[in-house]
Amino acid sequence: MPTYGKLDSFDESEDWTQYVERMEHYFNANEIDEEDQKRDIFLSVCGKNTYKLIRDLLAPAKPGTKSLADLTKLVKDHRDPVPSEIIQRFKFNSRTRHSDESVRTFIAALRSLTEHCNYGDTLNAMLRDRLVVGIKSDRIQRRLLAEPNLTFEKALEIATAMETAEKNTQDIQASGTNGTFQKQINKVSKSYTRNNSGNSKQGDCYRCGGNHLAAECRFKDAKCHSCKKKGHIAKKCRNKSANGNLSENHREFKSRFKPRAHFMEQDESSESENEVYSVFHFGNKSNEAYKVQINVNECEIAMEIDTGASVSIMSEDTYKEYKSKFRIEPTSAKLRTYMGEQIPVIGRAIVNVNYKKESAKLPLLIVKRKGPNLLGRDWLNKLQLDWKDIFSVVGSDNQSSDLNVILEANKEVFKDELGTVKGMKAKIYVDESAVPKYFKARPLPYALKDKVEMELERLEKEGQIQQVEFSDWAAPIVPVVKENGSIRICGDYKVTVNAVSKLDNYPIPKTEDLYATLGGGQEYTKLDLNQAYQQIELDEDSKRYVTINTHKGLFRYNRLPYGVASSPGIFQRTLENVVQGIANVLVRVDDILITGKTREEHLNTLSEVLSRFKRIGIRLKKQKCVFMAEEVVYLGFKINKHGIYPVESKVEAIDKAPSPTNVTELKAYLGMLNYYNRFLANLSHLLKPLHVLLQKDTKWSWEKEQEKAFIESKQLLKSASVLVHFDPKKKLILACDASPYGLGAVLSHKMDDGSDKPIAYTSRTLTSAEKNYSVLEKESLAIIFGIKKFHQYLYGHPVTIITDHKPLIGLFREDKPIPTMAASRIQRWALTLAAYEYTIVYKEGMKKIKEGTIQEKLNRITPQTTTGLAPSELLMKRKLKSRLDLVFPNIEKRVQERQQKQKHYHDKKSVNRQINVGQGVFARNFAIGSKIKWIPGEVIKQSGPLSFHIKLQDGRVIRRHIDHIRVRNFDCTNNENEEKCDNDSDLFEPEITIPISTPETEQPQIEKPSNMTEQMEPRYPKRIRKEPSHLKDFVLK
């Protein structure tokens, strides 16, 4: 019978109650009901340290003689003895709200203290009383005491509302002068202690001595003439004390403002601040610490940046949590606070520190106090911190506290362990008739062999893989080196299971579809899953298909591995089912983004997502998560409330790319550039010289034209504008245009200030057939291209289509019927547009000559000194005509000469044909089977310019075109003319010849044949014989 899950040995850092709960779930999942079997399983997997503890507690009895419930209770009583109810109630009743603590954080602390107080049904009443007594705000306390029939829920609502109102009032009052204060890097005190001296004036400014706050002083940007520093004037300079010239005002200032300089809080009820040194702070009363996540001995630890601490320290609580990761040694170092208080030091450790791409071995002191871990100057000198990310976090104490409450309530989600999605197992569908494929292990580089073996050991210890002796299926492995130097093992399943399995076609959302839902977001939270795919278990039948073959033998995956073709679809379906029904959550495989129109909405969404992850068993990697940030990088784009931007690092990589030397490198460059094509207008037109090199049977030739397009494409990307978020409430504008080589469109929003802000750009090149379209058809195609490309945005929303081709207004205007006489493709495009709610307008002024246009045109048609040709001639391979040609000298005379010459040649070949009514003619006979081609008759009527009615000799009347009529000069009824009627050659006009003559001889008159009358004229122009030029010196006889 297969077993579900794996029961690990008990880790001393884990909570015992949680371990017992996991063990009960394991028994239920595997249908283990016998108590003796449960006890034996527990004793066999609990671990040697736990087993020894049980034996010691039971001695001289044996553990096998007790029940499972007795054993677990025995360990619980030993590890977690029930604290005294009196002491717990004393701590609860002594707890008061700290000065830097929000109301909600205070309530959360009170609730945690009531765990062993056993208040029962009176819990809410006790919480209400403690809230009123310990709130430490006279204004809120008076308001609560004045409320009749006050309940805990009502008290919490009132206190929270008043706290928020006070904070908002302070922000409004400070906005006129101070604006938003960026937090400084040093730890600062939240307040300053005043003496009770009655001589002190409340508003004295330390910058100039005036009666106002320092933050409002007009000398806050002034430069001191004494110390040359900025922020005060000479009479209030504190550096004068070094020369014994301490001013009276400064002595008074020092006596009035006593800095607090505590190092760590000594117990939970202490109200002292956690500052390590003295720094005065004015204006903004917030002292939220700047923290940074540092990887210390492979443990992600939050450290508070403190430039006043000469060394970096770790608190005792943090050390106990990661005790197994640190090896400490005794030290003689002594630490003292600013006030002279000595801090006990447990020991010193040399630790491996990793921060982003930096790593170093640095000393760390462990102190026997509670409080934050401090990153001192010794580490700051060795690490280059990302100050931009650290300074970007600006928020109030309430906001940070609310986030911390949510994270603390769901801290199980961030455990450093492999999660397991509950209630589902992935299945890989393979045809039963498929032939198993077995590949032997590939040889590994010697430098990677040890790392691969360590990774295999880790995966096997975590239960992700298990070693097997035999398998019909086996795929070689591909070790991937991560940025931190570790190894990720991936099976090359494309040669095995992927070739015969049925692909899970669950749709992966498009990037543009996800970004279309970000409108209105103010802050963003990005969640990163810990070993995403491996959190889903495989069913038993599918495990044999994902066996990998290594130099250590065969291993079979128990979890969904990377590399299987169906893994993305399976994982996408799973996560979408988990977050289904939650608004403002974007999921694309293992990338999750959360936002909200307000901070409260954002926090509620985050809380719901984390709660669902907690219930279903998903684990997140906290050090890679980003919470409540104003700007994040998601799916390769930078996002903030204003819009979407390219990522600077990717733009820099494209900008530094060298010129391609072959087609493969060119494709790689175009692939990187096209990733940001939504930011680039008319990209296809710009890249035309590069696309030519990708055509089949085109020889590689990188010329100046290609290099220019290559450089301009980089410049276009670097100057790309921000793309605003799609907002269905704003008006949509679609501007389309076409060129001889490509199509372009831009979708924009009409903003409240009347400006147009782009949402996305798009373009493409024209096919060889589309290049033959007329200008009207190309401009129409540009509109259809833009409509189809942005269909998800436009369908169901009114849109204004802008074109610079005015004839399209008559074709596609929204209030006109579909043109029935237009070309077929125009009719099809009109039907396509009919499905949208649009208004098409002509952009007035788009074709008008703007300032500088004439100069640009002159530059394009003027020959350059270097090439001798105009730029337009170099581009089009021919000289372009312009209206400036009309101002050239003698242009009118040249035109007249051309026209006369054209008339002369035309008159040479033309024959004036004339047929009159009553004239005898021959008409062409089209009767089938008749041997007579021409029939004699007489013209009786002219029915058109070139059409005549002819009466034949048998009385019939026919109609013929002038081309089918010949003039008749004899009577066919006579027997002597019958032969002429049958001979077609006698019907044509005789050839007119011009004899060759020399220039000295006169041209003789042309004699007409005897059978031609005055009415007869030649039907077709005849060949005119001319004297050959090479015989001009000879006389022909």
- What is the C-alpha radius of gyration, as a whole number of Å? 46 Å
Uncertain segments are 176-203, 241-286, 393-398, 845-853, 988-1015
- The tally of beta strands, per DSSP, is 32
- What's the CATH superfamily of one domain, by name? Reverse transcriptase/Diguanylate cyclase domain
Biggest sheet architecture: 6 strands, mixed
Strand order of the largest sheet: 3-7-6-1-2-8
Number of helices: 32
Q: What is the overall silhouette?
A: elongated
Q: Tell me roughly what share of residues is in helical segments.
A: 25-40%
Report the structural category: alpha+beta
Q: If you average the pLDDT, what whole number results?
A: 78
Fold-level CATH name of one domain: Alpha-Beta Plaits
End-to-end Cα distance: 124 Å
CATH class of one domain: Alpha Beta
Strand content: 15-25%
What is the architecture of one domain at the second tier of CATH?
Answer: 2-Layer Sandwich
Keywords: Endonuclease, Hydrolase, Metal-binding, Nuclease, Nucleotidyltransferase, RNA-directed DNA polymerase, Transferase, Zinc, Zinc-finger
Pfam families: gag-asp_proteas (PF13975), RT_RNaseH (PF17917), RVT_1 (PF00078)
InterPro entries: DNA/RNA_pol_sf (IPR043502), Peptidase_A2_cat (IPR001995), Peptidase_aspartic_dom_sf (IPR021109), Retrovirus_Pol_polyprotein (IPR050951), Rev_trsase/Diguanyl_cyclase (IPR043128), RT_dom (IPR000477), RT_RNaseH (IPR041373), Znf_CCHC (IPR001878)
Organism: Mytilus edulis (Blue mussel)
